[in-house]
Request: fold
Amino acid sequence: MPDNEKENNNENEQQQSSESSFETGSITVEKGGRFFHCLTIIGQIEGHYILPSQNKTTKYEHVIPQLVAIEESREIAGLLIILNTVGGDVEAGLAIAELLSTMRTPTASLVLGGGHSIGVPLAVSCERSFIVPSATMTVHPVRMNGTLLGVPQTLSYFEKMQDRIVNFVESNSNISADDFRRLMMKTGELVMDVGTVLEGQEAVDCGLIDCLGGLSDALDYLERTAGSK
Reply:
């Protein structure tokens, strides 16, 4: 193959890789001779309904296949989840969190900016969770938009959904179910709502997040964990 044709092929491959990274919000990097995959969860988590085009979204039908591919890959030694999300579809977010919590591949999460609402279970779903000092996490009860029926079954559905989130967070972090519920039901902190806003150190102090740290800390953890397995 001529040299100029090889160069064109390499340029095309690099362009395709760059476009793929832009579309999926993911990239694979090398550190210490091992490959680590970085996946971003940003904006609003999109579920069964398509959100307006001006919204920045993370689509669960894109994320789930990536997680399956990462788990089955022999080359990828660890997975880093970077979170800056306002929340979104509860069931879609919980589905992604459940997948992350059951992976054999070493995982770490890093909260930047915000890890709000259903972003909380996503943050705690990894083996090790990190948060930068300037980031915040909003903990509040389950909320739904649209038409709701004023019947006992609706309240029961909300309670069951909330229990699923509380139990998941308790199982994957160092905070108790009672303490997490107290954060969810706190009044006087959010305008026209109930809940709690936790800054980086506060999220660590209450046991929700494992430790304060940044990108290098999360990657170092993955490198150490991958090296011990």
Strands lie at 26-31, 34-46, 57-59, 76-88, 107-115, 128-131, 136-139, 196-199, 211-212. The first helix runs from residue 3 to 24. The mean pLDDT is 86.
